[in-house]
Amino acid sequence: MDETRDGEGSSQPVEAKTKAQGMSHQSDVLPCDQLRDQVIGNQSSHTQLMETLLHLRQTVDDCITQLTTRPPQLDLPLEEQRHNQATGEQEAFLRRVVNLLQSGAMWGLGLQAPRPTLGPRDDAGGGQQAQLSRQLDQLVHQLSHLEVAFVSHDLSNRGIDISAFERSKFQDFKTYQGDKYHEDKNTMGFINLGVSENKLCTDLMTERLSRSDMNHLEDALLQYSDQRGQPFLREEVARFLTYYCKSPARLDPENVVVLSGCCSVFSALATVLCDPGEALLTPTPFFGGLVMGSYLYSKVELMPVHLDSEITDGSARPFQLTVDKLEQALLEATLKGKKVRGLLLINPQNPLGDVYSRDSLEEYLEFAKRYNLHVIIDELYMLSVFDDSVTFRSVLSMESLPDPNRTHMIWGTSKDFGISGFRFGALYTHNKEVASAVSSFGFLNGISGITQYKLCRLLQDREWIDKVYLPTNHSRLKAAHRYITNKLKALKIPFLNRGSGLYVWMNLKEYLQPCTFEEELLLHHRFLGNKLILSPGKTYMCKEPGWFRLIFSDKPLPLKLAMHRFYEVLAEQKRDLRVKQLEDPQKE
């Protein structure tokens, strides 16, 4: 399908309704909204603001003390010296935060007046509010990542990297876990449209997993199993993929390895195919979670093949991957001294939703063969193509692969069946040596025997899958997608209109001024302040700021509430941008 490009202009979005008393809430994550309300509300709140700012300043001072008192580390390898070299920069950053705290405190006490607002009378107070709002948003954004800059006395340099990555990538999810929305128990909790989970068919899946055939125990399920996975599960996975991937020949169970999730499979593949410091090419934007497995675990770098949102020569649609772009990225990596060992593809693509045609897939595989590159193809969303006009073609459906020994396919049940908590991922590769090497990771990342049995029974029930689950899932995905895209069209927000996956890739550049990644992150934090989690484009290594991924595979009630919160944030953001332009008309 062609993408919808509604609203390329700067049309004002539909104004959100005034927050009802029952809908208003204060963020447990970001105190900036709370601080703004207190400062603007009345003079008596200045004391509370000052106390908060002083508390934050003490946090910064403690961090500076920790940075400057770390014991010296001598004769470190060059790779590790960067931690010490960064200390000065971290301290300078913290000093800047202190200055911002001082300015905020002076304003809160009435000792320093904000710049006068240029504009209509009804915006006179808005200028002060917008200025303080942006200062506090920036302050909270900086302080929210402050812990990442801490230098540990206990962790190794590698441990510091891992800790910093975990905090920067998963802090929002941790906050969400502690304050989840629930339609009865916690209506003011976080709604998570940032993590790709399918919640539309939990009723069907719960019913199926509760049937008596799932409740089976035997000694073998309670003991260690083959590291590749239980033979009965690998046989069923081979049959399942033969059928749903439309393989021309029956797939061999000996080529199947199952581990605890597709990221575990990818991490194992990256480890056995690449040496530390080597690289894999991957088109961007792409699912950023793979960075965790490729770099922190196996020290393999993902080299971006940057795709453009604008249609250019050689491309027929936005963010289109071409062989020319692959060639250019490979050349650039080589010039940087990087040894590229493979190409990582996601089909259907995450976060774009594109489905590769058979011709395109063959071109990418031929490119890889020319340069003796492995190809890892993640087909995690292959059964989540809900538009009847879109045809998905698995790499396993091809009559003959250009280089079968270097082609490796990954699939799991997390997205297509909405059971991410099962932690199941499968590898299919024609290369027995690769399968054997990856299977050794079952020692660390294996799946419990009971879970493997339940998965086997689920995949065996072809009649239920074909007649009940898939038709219902596709129908609900289609309805949820239609609801979200209609809302985006009403707001004149451009987005890619695809018929696969659980997400919409949308363009919020109109709400950034200037259009930078820092402003993108500030908008992300503004969504968080309204108890809504979305995924900013930088998470996916998108080279253009302003893009966000929105998950639509949630139930109707939380989805409707999420869009209400979405409207509120964009209306507030639009108002602040208008005030900012009135204050400084030179900046357009």
Automatic annotation (TrEMBL):
<dbReference type="InterPro" id="IPR015424">
    <property type="entry name" value="PyrdxlP-dep_Trfase"/>
</dbReference>
<dbReference type="Pfam" id="PF00155">
    <property type="entry name" value="Aminotran_1_2"/>
</dbReference>
<feature type="region of interest" description="Disordered">
    <location>
        <begin position="1"/>
        <end position="27"/>
    </location>
</feature>
<dbReference type="InterPro" id="IPR015422">
    <property type="entry name" value="PyrdxlP-dep_Trfase_small"/>
</dbReference>
<dbReference type="GO" id="GO:0030170">
    <property type="term" value="F:pyridoxal phosphate binding"/>
</dbReference>
<keyword id="KW-0663">Pyridoxal phosphate</keyword>
<feature type="domain" description="Aminotransferase class I/classII large">
    <location>
        <begin position="191"/>
        <end position="552"/>
    </location>
</feature>
<dbReference type="InterPro" id="IPR015421">
    <property type="entry name" value="PyrdxlP-dep_Trfase_major"/>
</dbReference>
<dbReference type="InterPro" id="IPR004839">
    <property type="entry name" value="Aminotransferase_I/II_large"/>
</dbReference>
<dbReference type="InterPro" id="IPR050478">
    <property type="entry name" value="Ethylene_sulfur-biosynth"/>
</dbReference>
<protein>
    <submittedName>
        <fullName>1-aminocyclopropane-1-carboxylate synthase homolog (inactive) like</fullName>
    </submittedName>
</protein>
